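Title: [Solved] Class II glutamine amidotransferase 3D structure

Original question kept below for reference.
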Amino acid sequence: MCRWLAYSGSPILLEELLYRPEHSLIDQSRHSRLGAETTNGDGFGVGWYGTDGGSPALFRGIGPAWGDENLRELAGAVASPLFLAHIRASTGTAVQQSNCHPFRYGNWLWLHNGLIRGFAAMKRELTLAVDPGLYPHIGGSTDSEVMFHLALTFGLVEQPVCAVERMVSFVEETAREHGVQRPLQMTLGVADGTRLWAFRYSSEGNSRSLYVSTDAAALRALYPENERLQRIADGTRIVVSEPLGELVGAWQPIPESSYGLVEPGNAMLGDFKP
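Solution (posted by the thread starter after getting help):
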């Protein structure tokens, strides 16, 4: 499967999370500890917003993230207050740029760790349920991108959580019609330029790992001698497939069948009930 992270806070260089931590996302591309595979080398991507929000920029590649010099250069030069990054381990679809996450539509970004079991058998029905106006925007062949466009079809822009719940329900209903058991495994990162959502859900109730960073003020109080933590602004949150380091108390697991929302001045957890 895959590994990903999402950041929301004061602007930082992408390299602060992609490269510098002890167990950075680039380290995870070769040495994942909690993923289904140790190596995630089937492409990568990062999407980031400017300080004024708006449409995000994308940089994606089909090679392993650990060896891409352009990614290294970009990460050291680009600062953003909101960005999503992904390293891919294909579940069967081609290694090509259009299959690399994040996926973008307007000012929305979407990335996914997991799969739809039996996707090949259901692909036609799932894809035909996408709004005809959105269908031309599907550029690749992954289940993840179809999930994104189904969520858009079901109202992602107006009601993000309800739209993802409807998407999951539709996938699971279609799977039942095809005799596919436990069809969906997912952690999702979704952003619109100001807000960040994270979802953790699976049909079997045993989802892939997902963590959120502890409240910045609480961390500063816990480690007053840590200069790096003292520089973290209030409201900063990082969502990760697996922790970026071993600092005790720095990472909290996102509960099974739940979602998190991070927006300026607010962070919350809620139940996710398709």
